[in-house]
Amino acid sequence: MEVSNARNQSSKRKFDDTVSSSSNGVDLSLLEAIEKSQNTIEAVDTRTLKKLVLSFERRLKENIEARLKYPSQPDRFADSELELHEELHKLKVLAGAPELYPDLVSLNVVPSIVDLLNHDNTDIAIDVVQLLQDLTDEDALDENDEPARVLVDAIVDNSALELLVQNLHRLSESDPDENAAIYNTLATIENLIEVKPAVAELVCEKTKLLKWLLGKIKVREFDGNKQYASEILAILLQSSSVNQKKLGQMNGVDVVLQAVAMYKSKDPKSSDEEEMVENLFDCLCCLLMPLENKERFVKAEGVELMIIIMKQKKLAYASAIRAIDFAMTNYPPACERFVDVLGLKTAFAAFMGKIPISKKNKKERYQEELEERIVSLVASLFGGILRGSRRERLLSKFVENECEKIDRLMELYIRYSDRVKAETERLDQIEFDDLEMDEDEKYNRKLESGLYTLQLVAVILGHIWCSEHPQMRGRIELLLKQNKLSKNHVKDILQEYHDNIGDLDGPEEKERAQAKIQKFLTAL
């Protein structure tokens, strides 16, 4: 699961638009012209860099001295504070010369800049946040990967993560400047992660950012910072099992469920709010990777909530299906709960293609993704419910209405089989044209073209065949014959699946999964 860059950009545009619209008739073009005239400076080179740093350090020293000399007389150090603000503003020009970042670090000014996040004057801390955001912005860094890493390492090594998060706690969203600083703090953290992915775990280990983000998504009212908080949370969770487990221990599963529950019977009011809901479901799906969080999900009645959302057929419909599939994958208790709370009827309505229609899900790719997710959900149910009355209830779904669900299953099998066949022929032609492609790459290309869904359909067919139900077996054989196929075609798909099962979850899990597929191969 990835968080879209487009989502980042749209949320940033929203914040900028909000700020612009609150300028109360002030001529913004005039203000911009004045600002540009104030910021005019010669081309940035090493000499200019040293002048900027020297001037900054001089103003910083003057401010420190003035505050020490007149601690209870703000008017005596106000001028030095304004000058320090101007020097920090001037340093932003360095974002246009990222190749100089190693020189900036070697001048040992980063510790002084970062330490100002602790400044008693919140406005100075806000200046530093804006500076750090500008220096680490992906547009500024462009292709300067190594200089960027040098700067980010220095920023992180000087406790910037801790200070950025501490500063968050003293910023008020009721103040426009501080509200913007909250957004910019989150943007800076995202930038740091982009350059140095290890920051995603570091910031959760060293700070209380996760707690702050959970508090933010709890708020009922929607705003740009809540949206961005949900996005940062998704980024922190998407590639880190450590963060997933940590947030689970912080009651994170329950908090995220409460956040998505706000949309169980209503749709978001804007595209930005819609993206936030998607972010929240991304968070939920990431949280459902560790086994212990699946247990928390079931205990928090997450299964019931997802079924309610599916029944309401609002915008979160597909996201709820995705989340319940994550919960049930390799976790029988979630599958059992799903059956017990009458989820089969809702799931199989979707399986039969009875999905809510809206402007969004008229898109062909949306419907394909939903179809693939539903197939995965049904496969998860068969994998998690192996015996007893629940198994009988699941199998009976494929008998009712003259085996219409087997007809649907075979329709999917033929469609995805044709798609994979076309991709295989295309790849063979590429090899014929002397373009080298190893077996792993070929297999991955086939997976992307629909092989994975085809494999899941074949697994479901294997489960149904092993039930030894004569009516269902007869229907499968009839439909294969009508399409000029045999059981051997299904066996070939299962064999390829068997041979490519990885050991990501350990050798014992691989052996167990392969034994299950081997059982189908023997029975067919």
Automatic annotation (TrEMBL):
Q: Identify the residues that the record assigns to the Beta-catenin-like protein 1 N-terminal domain, covering every copy.
A: 23-129
Keywords annotated in UniProt: Coiled coil, Nucleus, Phosphoprotein, Repeat
Query: Which SUPFAM superfamilies does the UniProt record give?
Result: ARM repeat
Annotated Gene3D superfamilies: Leucine-rich Repeat Variant
One GO CC term, this protein = spliceosomal complex
The record's Pfam families line, in alphabetical order, gives: CTNNBL (PF08216)
Q: Where is the major localization of this protein?
A: nucleus
* Compartments it resides in: Nucleus
Q: Where is this region: Disordered?
A: 1-23
Task: Write down what this protein is called.
Answer: Beta-catenin-like protein 1 N-terminal domain-containing protein
Originating species: Pisum sativum (Garden pea)
Query: What lineage does the source organism belong to?
Result: Eukaryota, Viridiplantae, Streptophyta, Embryophyta, Tracheophyta
